[in-house]
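Journal club prep, shared notes

We agreed each person brings one worked example of a sequence with its structure written out as tokens. Mine is Metallo-beta-lactamase superfamily protein. I'm keeping it raw so we can talk through how to read the token line rather than staring at a rendered picture. Sequence first:
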Amino acid sequence: MSIRNKDLDMSLPPPGADQAYCDVSALEAGIIKLSFAGFTTSASSGSAAWVPSLAFLLQHSSNREKFVFDLGIRKDWEKLPPDTHKMVSEGYPVEISQDVAESLAKGGTSPSEISTVCLSHVHFDHAGDTTLFPESTFLVGDGAKYAIEHKLPLIAVDLPPTRTTYLSPDEWQPLGPFPQALDFYGDGSLYIVNAFGHLHGHINVLARTSSDGAWIYLAGDSAHHWDLVTGKGKIAVHETATGFARCAHVDKEAAEQHLLRIRKLTEMPRIRVLLAHDGPWYEENKGGPAFWPGKIPSS
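Then the structure, token by token:
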């Protein structure tokens, strides 16, 4: 799948009169140890660090609906399917002192208050425990069906059949540097962006954070390290024991194209970009007012 930027207007839409926006708060959702050499060519062999698996609460300024983006790692990760459990145990150590439901409760919010849970994709460190949200509508990219049906590595999700919507980007419209985006509320406050490349159905969120022109971009696993966004590093490719070349993305070319679009965002004024595993941002902000019941300040 290849989507190019030809003839796209790179600018983001200006705010309208009485422009709606979203308050965005980070949620603790576990930490995971990643070996960066597996993701970027700029990392030295053996370099690794504990990084967050961030989730986010977005609250609409007018209707006050609560929208959660990603669920991080489930606290009882030992219950992951056997193949995924084995991969986590052997290659992706995790620690979960507080899951998303507990993070919400810390700020006085119950899972029953969450109208929508949107998953960037269905890898175990983003899909969390969906059973903790028995009244929410779930949104996933339609490619998630393929990932689940083919039991791709690290997939672990239990989507409620009657409360899950699979989003097809076929009719979505261009937005800034992105060829396909959905105006979720219809008022320019929150957009769901097709971010194919990392995994089938991978999506991102672009939200206004003020009525006068500030934005935040939640990039999911579009990059696991900031060097891939800045261009200091390229997507790492490794040869497996069976002789196949592999990387952290199911479509390397599409992932590279999407990284260029995110880089465009970083050159625009008043926009904050956050990665799901944004170690530098987490180290600076953990335990602080950017986490619920506080909110991430507008740019």
